[in-house]
Amino acid sequence: MPDTSRIALPAPLQNDGDNTQSSPIERLSDDLLIAIVMQRVRSRKQASQFGELPVSRSHPLITASHVSRRWRQLVLASPSLWCDIAISTPILPPSLEGETEAVARRLIQWMQNLPEVVRTWIDRSQNCPLSISMHMSEIAHFSDPKVGKEVRDTAWICCLTLIDLLCDVAGRWRVLELDISLEDQKLDQSAALKRFHNLRAQDVPLLEELDAGLHIDHHLSCPPPVKGGIQMGRSLRSLKIPLTRGGWQDYGANWSGLTELHVDGFLFRQGDKSAEEFGAREALALLKACPNLVTCTLALLSQSAFAEREVDLGSSSTPVTMGSLEALDIRGACPRSSMAKALVLPSLRELVLLSNDNDSQTLKCWLGRFGRGLRALQLELPLNVSPDDMDHILDHVPNVTSLGISVVGSDDIRGDRAPRLDAGSLLLQSLTMKSCVGGGLKEGCFCPKLKELFLSQEQKISDATILDFVQSRRSSELVKRRIQIIKEVTVFSDGDVGSDLKGELLRRGVDTDGLYLETL
């Protein structure tokens, strides 16, 4: 198929007479015309801020349907074009926030028209499965309280109308992503929200992906869904759970059917106080209930009042075996060594451990168990990691092709101990191929398959350290030794970083073709 990425939609014609047939674009086949429209939609999505193209009267599909009679017939006769319904509140430029009533009137009119625009998409998609994303939150602050209240009231009337519309076609949902923040607790009792909360698993037979976050009256956490709700859908394979009040057992999802899971945590109640209790023990129990996961993201919460429950998990628990899990992402509280020891993950290829209280011993345990099978790794390292610990960590990940390191901590955490090289500089020096006295490179290196490196820390990393690393990992000698040449390096650090590092590499005689190098 020809490249249609550079073909722009023509301006709407003034008539639909025979002259339109003489236009070269009108002589294209129906399939190619539809491909042009689809490419236009894709390019607009890619250029948008969040990778979505909200429905509107200026959407490319609406524009295409007004080009000519033929275009309109084609677009309206292609229901699959209308199956992606993205809804979001507009983001005002800072220059307009707090502005005049005229801006508010435009917003109000836009929100009053939005339900009808969404109905157009629903009708034109006919009976096709729908992918829906709806992001609604406070639009803007206005200096006039009355104007601000009118905008907010209109926004939530619009929001509830849209929820009602979407519930009408729940049987066609394939993907549902909701992120709604309601400011008035009374709205939690609205008929539209009650209708949504009361949907049952049998109401969504096609639902494969679910991400539903409803935040009421500024609560950071969401209420749990009803038992037997849409989270139990028979086709559900991907589930994202926002921070939720209650335990994971009370959530009642179709755990065994999931292949993708994202959990932002659960808040348990202990007496009269809320205790953040979703830690390693709860996470292991949840993983055990999800034996078919391929990707998983977990946010572990602080264990301050329940730390004693996290001791010796591996020794007292049956190992949790997950034969299909390929990607595991753990954030928040540090996942202690006991959690690693309780997991059996033979297919794990991607690991993310992002916690600002990661310690070297914990990381060494995790990588000792799973490091050799990894192809991609992201870690948060303490600033004062020792050279021995750094070597130990890198030695256990010989097959990684993508490595992301964020260094956390400040200089004052080192106390009165002798100063050490910061972790970022130490990492680059450890990955730098060492030179022989007589020229050439010494045998052996850490991470011989490394293609991509991302490094971030607050402390400055010198240009020389970056250049030495890249030069050694771009040497022509590496090909003979079957060591991967580095292709992408991104370094984010404080201070003034040289802006012409590629120029300096060229002066050193380094081949920079195909190299992406960015310092921020």
Automatic annotation (TrEMBL):
SUPFAM superfamilies: RNI-like (SSF52047)
InterPro entries found in the cross-reference section: LRR_dom_sf
Region (Disordered): 1-24
Xref: PANTHER family: F-BOX AND LEUCINE-RICH REPEAT PROTEIN 6, F-BOX DOMAIN CONTAINING PROTEIN, EXPRESSED
Name this polypeptide is given: F-box domain-containing protein
Gene3D superfamilies per record: Ribonuclease Inhibitor
